[in-house]
Amino acid sequence: LIPGQKSISMRKEGKVDYNDKTVTWKVFIDKNKYFGQISLDGFEFYDNLFDVGDYIKDTFKVGKTEDALVSKTPTFDKDKIETDKNGNKVKPLTYKFDNSSTTPIVIEFKTEIKFDDFYLRNDKKESERITKTNTAFIRKDKEEYKAVGEVEIDKMWTQKKVIKGHYVNGYKRPYRKGASEKGEDPDYYYVDWTIEFNHEGKSLENVKIKDELLKDTLGECYLEFAHSKLEVWDGKGYIDTKRKISPEKDPYISPDKESVYNIGDINTKIKFTITTKINPGGINVDLEKTKRRDFKNVASVIWGKDGKLIVEHFASMSIGETILTKDFVKDKGSYI
What we know:
Elements: E1 8-17, E2 22-31, E3 44-48, E4 61-63, E5 69-71, E6 82-83, E7 89-90, E8 92-96, E9 105-112, H1 115-118, E10 129-140, E11 143-154, E12 158-162, E13 166-168, E14 171-173, E15 176-177, E16 189-197, E17 204-211, E18 222-233, E19 238-240, E20 260-266, E21 270-279, E22 293-303, E23 309-319
Antiparallel strand pairs: 1-2, 2-9, 3-8, 3-10, 4-5, 4-9, 6-7, 10-11, 12-16, 13-14, 15-16, 16-21, 17-20, 17-22, 18-19, 18-21, 22-23
């Protein structure tokens, strides 16, 4: 046995924050019950962050208890990757204890979750959970103690679709004629776009959806906002919230165009439907009987404490004579 091996016990835990894309790690260092108070003078705290994400500046704290933590300055270089004696890549976070450090000790710090560990970019599945394991050490000469921490991360995703189950002139279409009972003009075509988000039901702050309505690829027709519907998941199905949400300008996201929908705080999966009218832009012929026009529409879901977390997905649809002989197939879309 390493001398002193049984004198110190360590425990590590982590908690994911889905509103700032971070993990808060806590390391608890204490004496074992058969020993008195132990000095950590000369010990070094060491944690390889290469796999879990970079240390976030000014989040490292040390104290006797979780309620008495004091900011400290560790050593970490996010631009430097080292190699240990076993050939493994390391990005070490280190901290030297001073002569006033005695058990019990609590260390707390945050790491940033890597891009590919936080966002799901796959059309073929709606969820993915990964596990991140991280080991913290304290070392002095030949003494070494460690604690293994683990967190599970549910990757964030969104999906945008066009409702395509409409029948126009006997064909299934991704658009429909306006419905008078919905306050729509029956002389125009309408498109229903759906956006699903927060599949795992996380508690998310300040959710906004940016959806800029563009002209078709020929630059002739364009989409106009008609109305929207916000539904929330209750465990069995979607429930209509009856909220009337219209697009607005946003000074940070869309200062010039009314293209941002303020959803607010959520804690369930949501489905947001935006109904748009196809404005023919002066074309006086039935759009189904003219040349094909394609519309591509991108939805960006933004949320978090600083409004910088974002997932995107696009869908597209077409109207015109070249699609009259076949059913519409949804574009697979693209994740950020």
